[in-house]
Amino acid sequence: MNGAASFALVDEADGRVLRLQGPYLLSTVGAVDAHLHDLKGDVAAVDLSQVTAIDTVGAWVAHTLSLRLNGPITGADDRAARLIDAVSAAPMDGVTPSRHLPVWQRVPQRMGELVVEFFAGLLGVLGFLGQIILAAGAIIRHPRRFRGKALVRQMEQVGVSALPIVGLMSFLIGIVIAQQGAVQLAQFGAETLTVNLVGRITLRELGVLMTAIMVAGRSGSAFAAQLGTMKLTEEIDAMRTIGISPIEALVIPRILAAVLVMPLLGFYACVVAIVGGAVIADLSLGIPFQSFLLRIRDVVPTYDLWVGLIKAPVFGLIIALSGCYQGMQVKGNSEEVGMRTTTAVVAAIFMVIVLDAFFAVFFTNVGWG
């Protein structure tokens, strides 16, 4: 296989013969491709007897030369003959570009496709919710079918394992809010209101919201990847074959774990963020650590805590539903696992932010603003 690809035109009794020499592989044929394209006129044969190695690209070159120069292929060994037969069966017309339509037609066409995909996805989500409701009803009727160990395992994965990263993120967010808030409030001589800012914004909004985004990126993606891989390897089909409901065994424990753990993670994130704000206030603002915490109790209304705790399980439900639904839709090949995982995370974060906006308006209208 060593050497370079070459060719020679030899005059024989039957006429000119194009003799290919050396390895005709993807890595070597480029050196002679331009020269082969410059060949004109007919030949009596395209001789492959001196070709030392050949792959699909080399077979394609020999086949196209045979057609263009009107000479049959001779001297091909068994491997070369098989490859030439395979490439000769392929169409020679080329590939039609997908963007052959003018832009004023492509854009409406793509918009129509997106609308159809949206409604198809909406129907799929509704069907998935129906399966979950039916499975939950079956578990209520037959409590022994509930998989408690699976629920505990998922709660550990979603909640306990996330404590370090959620705590670090919340601590840093508390520091940033306190530091930047104090800088802005100092312009009005109201640095002491930093306590109000940190307490209310973390308990009411950022604590739960940032925790939900972190859980979506961490656990929502894991749900989609795990279920997608199981779907791809036909483990889910095998469960159905032996009479086990995948919704009961795989989906419901994950959804319950996210719903139950999110309020605890959200409250933990709020506490750590307030501690971070207290630390930076003690170090740079001259507000003692204990005074900061005592002030939090006085200036933050109780309903701010309830606002965060009410939103948290809803966010957990959205994250788990998105991850499980996308995972159960995987089919075809392993590339779709990555695509569905990405879609699950993006959709979950988008829905969490949209719902957070609706909650903000709703609680303001009911007097919890």
Structure write-up:
There is one protein chain. With 369 residues, this protein is an alpha/beta fold. It folds into two domains: 6-88, STAS domain (Transcription Regulator spoIIAA, 2-Layer Sandwich), CATH 3.30.750; 147-365, no CATH class. The protein is built from twelve helices and four strands. It has helices spanning 30-37, 56-69, 78-88, 103-141, 148-158, 163-185, 194-232, 235-241, 246-285, 289-299, 302-328, 335-365, and strands at 6-12, 15-24, 45-54, 73-74. Strands 1-2-3-4 form a four-stranded mixed β-sheet, covered by helices on one side. The longest helix is centred in the last third of the chain and has 40 residues, at 246-285. The mean pLDDT is 89.
User: Using only CA atoms, what is the Rg?
Assistant: 33 Å
Number of DSSP strand runs: 4
* SS summary, helix count: 12
So what's the overall shape? elongated
Mean pLDDT: 89
What is the number of independent domains? 2
Strand content: 5-15%
H/E element order: EEHEHEHHHHHHHHHH
The structural class is alpha/beta
Helix content range: over 70%
Largest sheet composition:
4 strands, mixed
The low-pLDDT segments are none
User: What quaternary form is this?
Assistant: single chain
Distance between the termini: 77 Å
Query: Which strand order does the major sheet show?
Result: 1-2-3-4
